[in-house]
């Protein structure tokens, strides 16, 4: 009965998407999800029960991870997902103008640009590189980046399907993080990294995931769709970017060259995260 109910909910959700695509005021952006639904149905006829049973809203924290895995997302996952990406809003509306910042492969991917613009129409994409105002000092003398403040405020307006309430605001209390035991961290991070992330927006994946998950365990922060959250393997996002996107000519860089590169797409020190040996097998 439970599985049948889950599948019924999945069907209702797809019906909702179809009806929404008919709205004139949003017909252009909803055209993307209508097309995606058709393509997804033709290639993914059987949705696994484990996928249907996981009702957490997915939060993507990696541009490259999203780029390489979004076509594998079930329709309800893609529809409700939140994107935290190292981009500026102007870039996705003028990809040819900002090809260097986006990299050619991303900028020239029309479906991926359509995805980003559609998520922007939902107000579910957050641009880490946009100006969000001045930092704010908390009561315990910790400065918080306006990016995290904006995300926190927006989360309080979104519906938590699991608890059937709005999501909670993010935790900016210095004492909370300072007193947090190592065993209490779900991801591979620590107090110093958390404080640095809240102030500088360092874009370390596991640190961002910890900040999001600590306040709302009903959110599922991931670098890419399908990522298991309780396993850590030594693989850096910089290598993933180098192999899959940024080094189309096959040039190889050393680790020292990676660390010397402070452009937005490669942070100086990425946290390890788990990844399948060959997770992105489908051509994009």
Task: Summarize it.
The protein is 46% helix and 8% strand. The protein has 284 residues and is of the alpha/beta class.
Please provide a written account of the structure:
A 4-stranded parallel sheet has the order 3-2-1-8. Strands 4-5 form a two-stranded antiparallel sheet. It is an alpha/beta fold and 284 residues long. A hairpin with a 4-residue loop joins strand 6 (159-160) and strand 7 (165-166). Helix 2 packs across helix 9 (110-121). The model is unreliable at 16-25 and 229-284 (pLDDT under 50). It contains 15 helices and 8 strands. The chain has helices at residues 2-20, 27-43, 49-53, 63-69, 75-80, 89-93, 99-102, 104-107, 110-121, 146-155, 174-178, 191-200, 205-215, 237-246, 255-260, and strands at residues 57-60, 82-85, 125-127, 136-137, 143-144, 159-160, 165-166, 219-222. It starts with a helix and ends in a 24-residue tail after the last helix.
The share of residues in extended strands comes to: 5-15%
Structural class: alpha/beta
List SSEs in N-to-C order. Answer: HHHEHHEHHHHEEEHEEHHHEHH
Shape: globular
Low-confidence stretches: 16-25, 229-284
Beta strand count: 8
The pLDDT mean sits at: 75
Q: How many alpha or pi helices?
A: 15
Distance between the termini: 37 Å
Q: Going across the biggest sheet, name each strand in turn.
A: 3-2-1-8
Instruction: Report the major sheet.
Output: 4 strands, parallel
């Amino acid at each position: 009965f439970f599985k049948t109910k889950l599948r019924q909910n999945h069907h209702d959700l797809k019906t909702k998407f179809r009806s929404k695509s008919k709205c004139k005021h949003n017909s252009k952006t909803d055209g993307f999800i209508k097309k995606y639904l058709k393509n997804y149905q033709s290639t993914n006829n059987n949705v696994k029960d484990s996928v249907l049973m996981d009702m957490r809203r997915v939060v993507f924290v990696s541009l490259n991870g999203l780029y390489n895995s979004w076509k594998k997302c079930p329709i309800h996952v893609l529809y409700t997902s939140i994107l935290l990406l190292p981009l500026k809003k102007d870039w996705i509306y003028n990809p040819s103008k900002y090809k260097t910042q986006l990299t050619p492969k991303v900028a020239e991917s029309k479906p991926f640009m359509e995805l980003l613009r559609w998520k922007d129409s939902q107000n579910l994409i957050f641009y880490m590189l946009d100006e969000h105002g001045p930092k704010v000092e908390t009561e315990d003398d910790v400065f918080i980046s306006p990016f995290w403040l904006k995300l926190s405020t927006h989360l309080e307006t979104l519906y938590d399907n699991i608890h059937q309430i709005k999501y909670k605001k993010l935790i900016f209390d210095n004492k909370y993080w300072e007193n947090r035991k190592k065993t209490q961290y779900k991801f591979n991070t620590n107090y110093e990294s958390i404080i640095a992330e809240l102030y500088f927006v360092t874009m370390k994946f596991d640190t961002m995931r910890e900040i999001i998950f600590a306040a709302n365990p009903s959110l599922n922060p991931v670098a890419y769709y399908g990522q298991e959250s309780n396993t850590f393997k030594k693989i850096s996002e910089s290598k993933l970017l180098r192999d899959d996107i940024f080094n189309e000519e096959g040039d190889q860089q050393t680790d020292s060259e990676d660390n010397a590169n402070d452009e937005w797409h490669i942070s100086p020190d990425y946290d390890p995260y788990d990844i399948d040996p060959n997770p992105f097998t489908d051509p994009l």
